[in-house]
Amino acid sequence: MEGTAFSQNRTDNHDGPRDLVRNYSNFKTSAAPSRFLLCRDGSWDDVSDDAFELLRAGFVSGRAALEVSMDGSSYLFDFMRMVRIEYETGHQKPVAWIDVNGRCFFPTTDESSNSSQKVEIEIKIDTCLKKNPLKRKTISNPPPPPPPPILPPSSDVTQREEWGESFIETANPPKKPRWTYLEPVSGGDSAYALVSDLFLDEMRRFYPVITITSISKCSHTDAPGTARLRAFQLQLALTRSARGSANVRFAWHGTSARGVDSIVEHGFGRPNRNSHGTGVYLSPPRSPYCSSLLSEVDENGQRYLLLCRVIMGTSERVEAGSSQFHPSSDEYDSGVDDLANPRWYIIWSTHMNTHILPEYVVSFKSATPDEVCSPRPMNSSNRTSAATMMSFLRLFAEIKKSIPAAGFRTLENLYKEYKAGKFGKAVLIRHIRSIAGDKLLTSTIQGVSRRK
């Protein structure tokens, strides 16, 4: 019997948002388990002693999920979702446990509370009477309801830069979503607060006027969505086995309204050709601004960012101006522009539908400046002198010494394509901001203005 630890928590796409939050509370508040139970044909049975030891060790170490091989089959025990999944068939069974303090932790059911309370009393009595908590016990009644839902406080979330082991879920949807398979998140929901805070924390520094018009959650309940979810889970297991850590992170991806529709329904279909090779570009969870530069305004003045979970695995640095479109060797899974402080995560086209799982869609409106010089609004007297009067060539000459040579060559090539009519000014501006950064552009324009 073998046990393999996972750093990820999502497995069952049928749980409702409240159930998921409640199960998260179970995992976080439980003491060390003294029994693990599986639901088989309406009855709750203890797992074998060997399986219990593996599951308990993983649980106590803080693992969100654990792969266990037993009886010739491999299973994923997901403590967050309180479910066991058979890898070969995908069949799922509910999982429950009782901790050393006698507290019972069961997944939610639709059964009456009276029946649930009866089972909880029976289990607690049994736990107190049995000296050996691992002795097999069959429970033929439905399980009790777990404690009220609790979301992780924002401080817990901020302490985990990876975010892959954190999790956000939503409450009842308030209205019909714009897109199929997206569930609107209520403005009073804890998940709305966490996602919006993450989004606005940086964006407000660049856009004094910015409004979130909606936040929606990807449900992954349709057949293609379920398949992509399973592919993500399997890739996570493979990466974890090969690398020792799947290095799962949350990240932002900017796109258009049509892009959201395509990604949610069919997955990622077209990589970006940007400054660090060809792939799907995502920015770190606390840097949505970079990805907002790749978003497009729709007919209603709205733009869109997807908050995704990403399997980074082992990342390699990709130089600015690179034409790379796949890992440079089998040792790497993804790319970044900077290993120490990345602004971009790059998922190659060969990996984009196994390593990226969209979770939320943020729709927003902002006062988007047309000037290349600054992401902040400027007064009318500054607009003309900074944006209109300065040519792109003058700007390139000013910033040439401040960016890598490969990045500058990329700017020159992009400018040639712009002059040839291959794309518009707005696209060129987004590329310039992505390569040079707004801090450099702002200081450059201000310096030129002072010299006049």
Automatic annotation (TrEMBL):
Domain RST as annotated: residue spans: 383-452
Chief site of localization: nucleus
Keywords, comma-separated and alphabetical: Developmental protein, Nucleus, Stress response
One Gene Ontology cellular component: nucleus
Keyword Nucleus: yes
Keyword Nucleus in annotation: yes
Region (Disordered) residue spans: 134-158
Ranges of biased composition (kind: Pro residues): 141-152
SUPFAM superfamilies: ADP-ribosylation
One Pfam family here: PARP
Domain of life according to the entry: Eukaryota
Signal peptide: none
GO MF term list: NAD+ poly-ADP-ribosyltransferase activity
Chain ranges of the WWE domain: 20-97
Compartments in which it is found: Nucleus
Positions of the PARP catalytic domain: 168-385
Family annotation (PANTHER family): INACTIVE POLY [ADP-RIBOSE] POLYMERASE SRO4-RELATED (PTHR32263), OS03G0230300 PROTEIN (PTHR32263:SF19)
Protein name from the UniProt record: Inactive poly [ADP-ribose] polymerase RCD1
UniProt organism field: Acorus gramineus
